[in-house]
Design brief:
By secondary structure, the protein is mainly α. The chain is built from 6 helices and 4 strands, in the order H-H-E-E-E-H-H-E-H-H. The chain has one domain. The strands form 2 sheets. It has a two-stranded antiparallel sheet with strand order 1-2. The protein has a two-stranded parallel sheet with strand order 3-4. Helix 3 runs antiparallel to helix 6 and helix 4 crosses helix 5. The radius of gyration is 14 Å and the shape is globular. The model has no long low-confidence stretch (mean pLDDT 86).
Length: 136
Amino acid sequence: MHEATLRDFLAGAVTTDVLRQDLVGTVEKLGDKMHRHHIASLEGEFHVNTSHLVRVCDAVLSGGLDPAYLKTIGFCMIASDYFHWDDDTQEAERVGETLHDWASPEINYPLTLETVRLFRERLATGKDVFKDTRMT
C-alpha cells in the first residue's frame, strides 16, 4: 500500500478502484499470528478528519471495498508518521477511536457491513452507537 494512494483517496483525487488495487498484497502472512505490512510511506502531513473516514465507510457500504480492508487502512494510518488527527477535539477522538477499532477487530468490533454502518454513524454524528448496540 502506498500512503500517497490512501491520501489521494481520502482527498477524493482517486477512485475506490484505485485504492482497492493498491491494497492488494499489502499484508503478508508469516505465521498463525504474524503478519508483515508492506507500506510505502511519504514525507509531510495529512490531517485526517471524520469526513475522510466516512468516505472510506461509504466505499465499503457501496460494495467497492471489502470490510476486511479496514484493518489494513486502520493499521497503516495509526503506524504512519504522515497521517495526523492528534488534536484535542471530539472529532479527532472519533477518528482515533475508529482507526484503532478498524486496526484491531479481534479485540474491538468485527469488520462487517453492520459495524461499518455503525462506524459511519459514529463518525458523522458523534453518537456512541456501539454503546447502545449489542455486538456479538
